[in-house]
Amino acid sequence: MGPKLDEFEVQSTIGSGAHGTVRKVRRQQDGQILVWKELNYGAMSEVEKQGLVLEVNLLRELHHPNIVKFLHHIVERRSTTLYILMEYCPGGDLKHLISKCRQTSTFLEEGFIWRVLKQLRGGRIILHRDIKPANVFLDAEGEVKLGDFGLARTLNSEASFATTFVGTPYYMSPEVIEGQEYNEKSDMWSLGCLVYELCALHPPFQATTHKQLAAKIREARYERIPIQYSSALQEVLGLLLTYEDFLRPTALMVLHHSAVVAHTSSKN
Ligand SMILES: CNC(=O)c1c(C)[nH]c(/C=C2\C(=O)Nc3ccc(Cl)cc32)c1C
């Protein structure tokens, strides 16, 4: 028998976005701190609801040290709300970390950036499709965790169309812009954009309109990362931000790249 809503006490709202609200909650039985993500399925068709059930079942089976742990789900039919209970990551998300660096004019340690690159290296069991700083979290040990898996696909329905395509697609890969199928190498491009932004504190491709952004991504030309970062890091970024998806490295190639091996320890 799964947990009930009244076994939890909401402590605060820690995030809200296109795909629902994230709240920090305390399990009253043992005081454990978790988060739950609230998704309203009221406007979904039966097919979309079945898709959501499949995605939740997939999340339940997804066990990886660098993916936020899915713990339980609770359905509240009265308010047509699905609650997804997941592990709490006290380090917060990389979006807030980057904005804090910008506000204090500080840069992130290169060693931390190599660890993010190694721990995330995309292209895993399933495609994430939405690798961005707001979807990457740090746990109590500073381990990197990818969150918000997959549900984006189900929520790409008309019911939530208006809320799905929010924000500027800074990390969209050239092949996706050209209307080709999203694939593992598209995640590797997004990973390159994320690592670049950790270095430069802004994305590699920026523009004021989607049209101009698409043109810059198609050009695939970007400034070198700040000079205090090594040429080895710049070189790995160059591989990830390669225009042709078939020329980009796979996740495994990144993991075994000599620079990644040299700059990270076997533990992380
Ligand atoms: C400023 N950010 C925060 O305070 C923050 C903290 C401490 N944790 C989070 C978010 C999550 C968190 O702690 N665990 C999560 C699991 C899945 C998802 Cl989609 C989000 C989270 C956030 C946004």
Question: In words, what does this structure look like?
Answer:
The protein is an alpha+beta fold. The protein has 11 helices and 8 strands. It has helices spanning 46-61, 94-103, 110-120, 151-154, 161-164, 174-177, 184-200, 210-219, 231-240, 251-255, 258-263, and strands at 8-17, 20-27, 33-40, 70-76, 81-87, 92-93, 136-138, 144-146. The strands form 2 sheets. It has a 5-stranded antiparallel sheet with strand order 1-2-3-5-4, with helices on one face. The chain has a 3-stranded antiparallel sheet with strand order 6-7-8. Helix 3 (110-120) runs antiparallel to helix 7. The chain is globular. Mean pLDDT is 89; it is low at 154-164. The ligand CNC(=O)c1c(C)[nH]c(/C=C2\C(=O)Nc3ccc(Cl)cc32)c1C binds at residues 14-15, 22, 35, 37, 68, 86-90, 92-93, 96, 137, 147-148.
